[in-house]
Amino acid sequence: MPDYSRIIFLTVFSVFALSAAIQLFYYLYFYLAVYRRREEVMEHSALPVSVIICARNEEDNLRNFLPSVLEQDYPDFEVIVVNDCSEDRSYDVLGEFLKKYPNLRVSNVNKDPKFTHNKKFAQFIGIKASVNEILLFTDADCQPVSGKWIEMMTSHFNNDTTFVLGYGGYRREKGLLNMYIRYDSMTIAMQYLGMAVRGVPYMGVGRNLAYRRSVFFENKGFGNFNHIVSGDDDLFVNSKATARNTVAEFRRDAHTRSVPSKSLKEWITQKKRHLTTAPYYKLRDKLLLTTEVLSRVLFYSLFVILLSFRFMWPYMLIVFGVRLITQTVVLLLTQQKLDERGLTIYALFFDIISPLINSLVFLSSKKTRSAKNVWK
Asked: Is the pTM of this model over 0.85?
């Protein structure tokens, strides 16, 4: 092999090894933190809590899941459901629940052809109607996995705590799409929960998120992000969360489970909405997230190139093996922590294709003009 060719391949191998080292850093420093974090049993008083749920045409989900919120084992809480321009029987379902549950409050938003709005407006209505300082958010298609959900999510609040980030997974169902949806939510949680543990909180999910009412109004609502369709959860956390005021909650009884998308088209629409917020993250967070994705793409791409030329293949396989073993172990431990099952083998494949999928969805979202009243 000519000297210049060897120099080129040595350079490629060095970049490959560097990308592997970056990947190992993310897995061992950020992602493994999700498993290693041990929750302390804390003495705390049961602070009054307002649970806020926004719903649009969620008749079945309200009927199936709202009782699990209303019947939480907690002494002092209200549940505010914002029934936002629903055209199904949500109004009737909520009316039945009002007779049964004294802690339920309903705010109805009527449809007005002269005024269109997105979910942020419904969130604002719910927050405005709340009477307690501690706000806990979930969605109408979400169900707490236990009666201790409110207690665990709010047990972290003290004088220093503003945000509590929880895990919101998806229900386990049949099919490859369900596998990918669960993988996607789990790996995103590995990032935002692990980074929060390491003092770099950058987002939360509205399926399971708590924060103080006062910080919302101090920020003048959703602040500089009011005009963006999405971001009622992640951008609000990104703008105000710090290492000192944010806590991540991992315990199983604090999880919620959501109804997953039934079709690829439905999931893509939902994913588009979520990806529209990424450009508005802090520069630090964009760099951290982009570095992980780029290092992963380089790792797999350069592995294929080096393998095809069999250049230094024993060392290349060692580097690949170390990263693969580390990835597998961390995924197994994370699945145990977040109560996800049967994802490991699929996750190793999804890890390769997810950057491509996210890129295609993001690019398609840039070409699609989203209406201002897109809700979810």
From this structure: yes
